[in-house]
Amino acid sequence: MGARTLLFSLLVFLHSFFIPLEAAVLKRGAPPGVPQYALDYAPLVYLHSDDEYRPSNIRSMLRNTQPLVNFQPIPGAPKPVTLDNLDQLNNFGGDSVYLTSVKDVAVDSQQAWLKGVTPDATGLTNGAISAAILVNEKDATTTDVFYFYFYNFNSGPPVWGIKFGDHVGDWEHMMVRFQNGVPSALWYSQHADGQAFTYEAVEKLGQRPIGYSAKGSHANYAMGGRHDHTIPNFNLPGAFFLVDDTNKGVLWDPTLSAYYYKFDAGTNSFTSYNPASPVNWLYFKGKWGDQQYPKEHEGQYILFGQARYSSGPTGPLGKELQRKDVCPSNVKPCWVRPFLTAKLEKE
């Protein structure tokens, strides 16, 4: 063994011995042109250890669904539907189009495609592009980078032992606002609302912020533990009603399996940093999942105005990519917290 080879082997051994995975800056394979700061400060996500519904291949949704309007097939819709022609469904009903599971999830919610992919030891979802990273250069000094996370199924947490809010398709996101390439604040999506924090306040691995994905619902939190979100944008100091569970389960690095795009707010258009990546799917205005089943549907019930099986969400286009504040406009006032609030319970 040559001296150079011996030295290299020794360095690899020392690196693996002294630097655990969580402390290492995970390597990323982003295409050229992506701002380096968008990678250096990209959030890492802890998936709940007991969550059976993991990040999913975005394409796998299309392979297992069909576009419907009012629960009826769409005459003349493209077949098969792909990420390259998904936007054409806008001509057949726009936001009334639902990508509806071919096999009823109320009958079988254990279908393999709904389960997603568990990240490996490096944080990679092998064989599954499960994230989309969108860069919005708002002006000469301010850039918002959206980190979108995709799951094929949302399993709503039980309320007093009763399940609500299950649905096919789940788009969640974190957003980092940069000033001159320096992170200043983050947004954590939580159901229809969320929370904002200063960059200094949040937990990090190295310089990368941490998000905690809630079991089943995949809402993003800045801390592990239990979170009561009965009051939107605010975690109550006790577990009362609507509770999400998070913990340091599986560490996921969404940047390792992601599509990368630049968003132009002036033209409301997307450009891929990688010419080989699909773009048209980002213009789809419909819903990623089934329309809420009627109350007479098998397995469906509606109590207190809340359904067991609800409608799927809109995609990234519907998440207010051009926002004035760190929070979307429905969150008022936009409080960017300079500290983390106390956990409800220990993890």
Automatic annotation (TrEMBL):
Domain of life (superkingdom): Eukaryota
Residues in the signal sequence: 1-23
InterPro entries: Vps62
Keywords: Signal
Entry protein name: Vacuolar protein sorting-associated protein 62
Organism in which the protein naturally occurs: Arthrobotrys flagrans (Nematode-trapping fungus)
